[in-house]
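SUBJECT: protein chain
CONTENTS: sequence, structure tokens:
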Amino acid sequence: LTYQGFREPLRLAVEVTSTNWEDDYVDKLDEYKGLGISEYWIVDYLAIASRSYLGRSKVPTVFVYQLINGEYQSQAFRGKDRIISPTFPELELTVEQVVTASQPRIR
């Protein structure tokens, strides 16, 4: 990835996991850290990552990574948890809202 059009690093990057979830949890995490992106979200709405990331109860999870002293510190949010964004502290979204918004609506 190149972001040559930007004068400063992006403040927030959001990835939604797919079958190649390891790209989001490993490769992109390292890449975004190198680019100096201060906040990175991984939205694992299908809970497809391994248990080493999600824990025993594989449930939809939003991970928020904050770049502190050149390293990402993560926090996991699930269910009715309000997602805490250091970049956008006024944000009022829960994991449940994000996950249900991604599901197709039946009419």
Notes: Residues 12-101 form one domain. The helical segments are 21-35, 51-54, 95-101. Residues 21-35 form the longest helix (15 residues).
